[in-house]
Structure formats: C-alpha cells, structure tokens
Amino acid sequence: MECNPKFIFLKESRFRWVECQITTLKHCWNERDIKDALRDLPRGLDATYDRILENIEDDRVRARVKLVLQLVAVAMEPLSLDDIVEALAVDCESETIDPKGRIQDPSVVLKHCSNLLELYDYWTGYVQSAKLRLRFAHFSVKEYLVSPRILQSPRPSSFFAIAEQEAHRISTTICLIYLISIPDMKSDTNSFLKYSATYWHQHVKQITGKSRRELEVGLAMKLFVSPSNILIARWLSIHDPQPFGSPMFICSPIYFSSLLGLINITAALIARHADVNLRGGVYGNALQAASFGGHKEIVELLLERGAEVNMQGGEYGNALQAASYWGHKEIVELLLERGAEVNMQGGEYGSALQAASYGGHKEIVELLLERGRVDSSST
Fold first, then answer.
1. What angle is formed at CA 207 by the lines to CA 241 and CA 96, rounded to 5 degrees?
2. Is domain 210-377 in CATH 3.40.50.300, yes or no?
3. Interval 223-236: pLDDT, tens
C-alpha cells in the first residue's frame, strides 16, 4: 500500500519540529529555563523558524546571517565554512576585499544559524571533499525563507526573506569582486577562488532585466577589458569554461562572452570594436561558440556586426554544424537564412547533416535535407 505524499510531508514536518525543540531545550541552563521553554513552545515549523530568526537581535549579525542564508540558498555547489569566511570579507560597496572583515572563528556561523544550517560530508562522484560543506538543516528551512509566508504580517523575521534573483545578484557581485581583487594565489588552496571563477557567470544568468545588464556592463566587464587582458587570463587560468580547454592566449574576450551567453558584455565589446571574426578557441570563433551554446541573440548580433557565417575551423568545423549537433533549430534556421552552406564539409561530424543525424534531431535533419534540395535546384 502506497503512503499519501501529504501524510509523509506532515509526518516529516512533525519530526523536524520536535528536533528543533530538543535542540532549543539543550541550550537551557537549568530546570526552570526548561519549564519556561516548554510552556512557550512555538506552534509549527514556521513559528519555530520565526523564533530562531527573531532571537538574532544585533543588526550587524542579522545582516551577516541573511547574507549567509542567501549564499547557501543559491550556491551552485555546496559552500564550506572557509568559503563563507572569504565571501563575508568582500565589501560590495567599495568593491574590495577587507581582510579585517574575515571571521576569526568560523563556527560562529553555525552558532547563529543553529537549526537553520548544518555541516555535512560532501561527495563529488566517488571523491569525498576535504572540507565539510554547508546546507540547510532541513528542506523546510529554505522553503520557508523563499516563500511568501515569511512576509505575511511583517515581523522581525521578514528581514530574512530570500528573493532568489536578488540572492543570485549578490552572489555574482561577491564572486566577481573576489576574482578581480584577490592577490594571485592558487585555487587548490582557496576553494572560494575556484568557486568564484567557475560559477560567477552561472549566477549572473539567473538574473533578468536591468540588474543583469548593470552587472554585465559594470563589474563583469572589468574581467574582459583589463590591460593586456590580465584579469581574463587569470580567470581562465583558474577555470576554463571550454569543455576541452585550449591555450587561453589565442582566445579573444568576445569569444568567451559569446560562448557563455553574456549578451550585454558581447554588445559592449562590439561597441569597443572587438573583431567578431578573430579565430581561436575550441570552437574556432565567436559565432561557432555562440551557436554551440544555443545563444540565439548573440548569434544574431554577431551576424549583424559582420561575423562570417561560413567561417571554418574549430571543433565542429563551422557554426551550422555546431548548432545542428546540439539541436538548436532556431539558430540553424537563422544561419541558413544568412547564407550558411548546408553541405560544407569538415568538423567532428563531417557535415551539418551528419551532426544532426548523430544528435538525433529529426526536425533539423529534415530542414537541412530540404535546404539541400533547394540549393541543388537553384544551381
């Protein structure tokens, strides 16, 4: 007999409520405190979390706890206490790292987030991380923090409400400042440096509208336009976003902005007269990189600014083969409209048709066959 999912949820919530109360009682100093606590137990998990958050009274501590909760809520990979120490040292107003802002005793994070966060053994595949990582103590913690319920009838705990886009904006900002400002050091000794280099662009893509544009053309642009490309070179030495890697000195900044789908940075680089046809990188050029990534807006922009639609080279030989293999039908249609040669040879799969067939993309195969017949009849 199958259990009702709602029943399982309610049962789990009750166990969680009991667990929180036991933890609270453990912190009581004497029998009188225990009796007082038992007379004033919160009703339900929401009230329990409210009480935990409302007991954080110092404004500076409240701000830091909220920041920690935001970082953990949207982390692309679980963060360690050491990572949190480094993140809290970033001063977003001055866009610098303040060494005096580093927490002396990282365990205070868990002290102030008791019943909200916990440490656990983190495994990547079959390899155990050298450091314990942070996570929410129960799924209901994050669920409450991001839900509208915490904002109902405004109260002190409402301060800790998490808007996920805002959390991603803060995470992006911290990662970029850290990546730009940290003195040269090895990422194998600084896991937050590795995290920042690997995930800043993934955080920024979770943001929409004005906030994303401001981040891309502001702070993120510093990576792409530094003297002698020193900052982008340092970023890529820590983490190369290309699957197979390539000598970074032959790749242009616009190649990487196109590969990662950073439309505002790509437009800004073009406004600075970046060469859209510069060769280099695993995918040969910016157009093929954007086609591989499925970034239609960037493909359109590059073509409008003079990108050669049939430029050869790179992993897939040309942009059409890259888009065909990965099933990006709208980009295939766009490239064909702009004059892409449907029967061009080269690349990993020999032709766009073979790439689409290998990838199992029936609609693109039909599109390429139809265009091939049209091209043949017109010659």
1. 75
2. no
3. 999 888 899 989 99
